């Protein structure tokens, strides 16, 4: 399979490839398992072997199509090794890379670009969090996701 430029472009050929596993003879499944994991299959359960092969293929394909996520994960691992802790990120708070957040504040329109590495660009500068940008705009302490409307205020 050729290297694709996006996860969406790679999805169709990968789905067809995974679907074809049902037609493979057991000997070919075992050979593919050995190629992927450098050992023989641990069980003779065909369904398990097919699922695990499909999962591994997707992992390999994903490394080709989403290098920025892998790089971010490597940085987080390095941070964990160096400090023993990780900076916590709220799940679902940060929109996908390429999203532009727009907020009207004090009569001025403020635009923030979500970058692929998990950071943000505002007024030509990079910031690690939306809260840093909200503080820059307002001059006061704000929750960035709240300020940009990604989260509702009040008690949960």
Précis, in short:
The protein is of the alpha+beta class and 156 residues long. Among the domains are: 7-65; 100-147, no CATH class. It has six helices and four strands, in the order H-H-H-H-E-E-E-E-H-H.
Would you write up a description of this structure?
The protein is α+β, with helices and mostly antiparallel strands and 156 residues long. Among the domains are: 7-65; 100-147, no CATH class. It contains six helices and four strands. The chain has helices at residues 7-20, 26-37, 46-65, 67-83, 130-138, 144-147, and strands at 100-105, 108-114, 120-122, 125-127. It has a four-stranded antiparallel beta sheet, with helices on one face. A hairpin with a 2-residue loop joins β1 and β2 (108-114). α1 (7-20) packs antiparallel against α3 (46-65) and α2 crosses α3. The model is unreliable at 1-8 (pLDDT under 50).
């Amino acid at each position: 399979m050729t290297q694709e430029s996006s996860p969406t472009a790679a999805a169709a050929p990968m789905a067809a490839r995974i679907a074809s596993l049902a037609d493979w003879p057991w000997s070919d499944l075992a050979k593919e398992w050995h190629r992927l994991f450098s050992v023989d299959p641990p069980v003779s359960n065909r369904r398990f072997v097919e699922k695990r092969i499909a999962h591994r293929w997707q992992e390999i394909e994903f490394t080709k199509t989403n290098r920025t996520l892998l790089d971010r994960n490597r940085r987080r691992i390095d941070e964990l090794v160096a400090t023993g802790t990780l900076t916590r990120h709220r799940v679902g708070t940060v929109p996908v890379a390429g999203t532009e957040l727009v907020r009207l504040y004090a009569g001025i329109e403020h635009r923030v670009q979500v970058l692929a590495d998990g950071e943000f660009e505002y007024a030509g500068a990079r910031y690690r969090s939306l809260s840093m940008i909200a503080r820059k705009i307002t001059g006061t302490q704000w929750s960035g996701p709240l300020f940009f409307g990604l989260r509702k205020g009040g008690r949960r």
